[in-house]
Design a protein that fits this description.
12 strands, Porin
């Protein structure tokens, strides 16, 4: 199962690289290094079979509506125990599909893969940080015309542009499984979306996610490194 997860990740990133040519190769190498380091086995740790999470959120670009769907594949879980505070640190590999609608400008459909670091207190409150890498395809709003070599004019229904994508975000949330044992969490997350090259520059757009994380017992289960850390 572990080899299948590594092969899936490498294939996914290769497809992103083909779509965006050589624009994101340094970032791809960095993400692969981070993922490979995260997969190193610790002989002092246990390895349990853990299910993946399903994420669904309202995805707003400023005031413009959208939606985002994702899967969180577990990489490692650390239960940290100390005199001052106890918490759980989780790391996930994520795959996401996002969309938002900007009237009279464009619709943006984008896919991404990323790395999530989440720290959850015993009470259930958590914070998280995630860098992501992906591919964006925009579809222009309004009517767009094109002219062929014979001078014939037609409507281009799928007019738009392709971009490399970097997304960095951080958020807060509450995990109901800690106190109430419900397989559910809710979260609020702010992201910075970066598209490039955009007219030889970089296009930045903030987005906001408000949604839920469903934590099923049996869904895409993987062998995951778990350990207890006493400080």
């Amino acid at each position: 199962m572990l080899n299948a997860r590594v092969n899936f990740t490498i294939l996914f990133l290769k497809l992103l690289l083909m779509k965006t040519k050589k624009l994101i190769s340094p970032i791809v190498l960095f993400l692969l290094c981070v993922f490979c380091v995260g997969q190193e086995r610790d002989s002092l740790s246990n390895h349990d079979t853990i299910s993946s999470n399903i994420k669904l959120a309202y995805n707003s670009s400023l005031i413009y509506p959208g939606v985002r769907l994702g899967i969180e594949i577990p990489l490692s879980i650390s239960h940290v125990i100390s005199d001052k505070k106890n918490y759980t640190k989780e790391q996930f590999l994520s795959a996401n599909l996002g969309w938002y609608h900007h009237p009279q400008f464009h619709d943006n459909l984008y896919i991404s893969a990323g790395w999530i670091v989440r720290r959850t207190k015993i009470s259930g409150f958590f914070t998280e940080f995630s860098p992501e890498l992906g591919y964006s395809r925009t579809f222009l709003g309004g009517t767009t015309y094109k002219v062929n070599d014979n001078g014939e004019v037609s409507i281009d229904k799928l007019a738009g542009y392709s971009y490399a994508l970097i997304l960095v975000g951080g958020g807060i949330g509450y995990d109901f499984s800690k106190q109430k044992h419900w397989p559910l969490a809710t979260f609020l997350k702010a992201n910075m979306l970066c598209l490039f090259p955009y007219n030889s520059t970089i296009y930045l757009r903030p987005t906001l996610e408000i949604g839920f994380i469903y934590k099923p017992i049996r869904f895409l289960r993987f062998v995951t490194k778990t350990k207890q850390v006493v400080k």
